[in-house]
């Protein structure tokens, strides 16, 4: 047969096509039989299966070519699967089936667990591989959080419950509950300088949302800190020093890539452990003994279960760095429903640069902030930044929720809560002060009122408003108002005039570390001074972590109880006028502040104490003032978590006023005992009565240590133990000028000790967690103990919220 030019052309095309078929890549994804993605599947081919790769955190993989006889997919706990090149599924979906019956693992170590050598190397190299130990880094992240249904039908549920779940199941076929997306830029520089800027945010159903980042305690950046805080608990890292006594490791597999070896291990707390620990899988790479992949979930689960998954790669410069961070937050039951819910979060990091210069102006006291237009970015912004497109269920969720949000103005509802951290509800141009609606104290009885203030809708620079309240026990109206000028939002700079006609307890301690009100002061005080005051104050932040305040105040105090003060002329008086100039300073080094949801929220500092200083100079003869004096207060509060020991809270406080003043201007310590109903209040004297002591100068120490569940843990019974110690010493100058026989000071020293047992009873809170009820017992001793021994004991209730 004669070869024609056409036959040569066809033969050439056949050779090209054959070569292309062998050389082309194969892109796929590995799933289980239920359609869930499987990460870290070992994929091998070639002679002796020497060519290997691992599927990523979402089960994705790419074979570089098809020039092999057999490719094999393997994962512990699943049946292996093998394919010839021509048999690989055209849709790229590789399905592995769970082994029907897995043998129980029996691990016998003749001398020492072989996994220990690997983990010890990882522990030794933690400081080298920990991203937060690098000199600097920066990256861009895309974050997607999907809230969806989680069905776990109880066979004992009613027909109405079953119908409700069936309706939810029908919805779940087409859509999730919510889709949240954000894009952030993160910067870091040693020591402990963090800055994160949200440049785009989108929540299905909510127009122009002003929330973007996931709450603290759900995702942890990196897996190298000895303790990781998740859902308000501190969990011990399995690769912390001393792991041999607390964690069991089982070496399950070893994979190779060039000269690098990856050791795959399972870990879990040893039997009988009482600490908060993880269980999961960890991959350690011999190149630098760094974490390559890790999963972790609490060993002790509760109503809310959190698991996380992290993958690391070597980036430019040879540094190991996280490239994907996933978490799954699972509710056993959705609030007030029979089915559960789950939040699935995925964070993808790119544009990663390690140990490169980061401009100093990127950093400020606010570590997380949002661009003003972050909620207004268009679709093209998301198309450029999504690593993968939204799947059909996610797209339908966005469409469905956007239609509902437009109908019911969900964006407006969210914006109304933007000042909730400070206790305000925003209604258009005004804020309602929810703290003023209802209150109660032994002096006022039930107090009803209202507070109304303007917000940034009217002006971001000027605000004003007022409040009123009426006490049904003292039958008096209280009221006040303010005008505030904000001149530097970046540094919290403002000037304020405030007027009050109200009541306050005598002997107020003015040290407030976190600008929170005193529970004990509000509910238990039986004595009050009427106060009418005019005050101006200028406040601003400087040097990042310092806040300074200067101001002036004119006010009067009138006791509502049996008391009189003998003035310098020897006359007894029950009305006192004061004029002061004031100075305040607050310092919390490395304080973490989040500018999210329209608010600045502090989460404290991991390493440094909170320091608060107040100084007042009283000047007589100005606006009727009767007294010259100097008054100084200083407080230092340490809040630390120590590995294997728990949390320690220590407050050291002192104050001095340099001349005799009416009793309301002295220091009354921090009592929290009530004979009717008492609650354990940290940073207070648990067995001290209200208005029992008054001092012109004093020192006090409040100590609390919380062992959490480190001492006792047995199934559902999870009591937590706290120990307390309080010590106080003080002197009252010229006590003879105070005409009241009940007034005394702490000149001989006040001492008390106690224990609190939390979570003795745990009540399910709508499937969102537990409300724990416990008891505290305290005993006062020393010079101020009572003659009757039983009177020295203080029994209190202890309340706690937890998720497991």
Automatic annotation (TrEMBL):
GO molecular function (one): carboxypeptidase activity
Alphabetized UniProt keyword annotations: Carboxypeptidase, Hydrolase, Protease
Pfam families per record: DUF5686
Entry-linked InterPro entries: CarboxyPept-like_regulatory, DUF5686
Domain of life per record: Bacteria
Xref: SUPFAM superfamilies: Carboxypeptidase regulatory domain-like
Protein name: Carboxypeptidase-like regulatory domain-containing protein
Organism: Phaeocystidibacter marisrubri
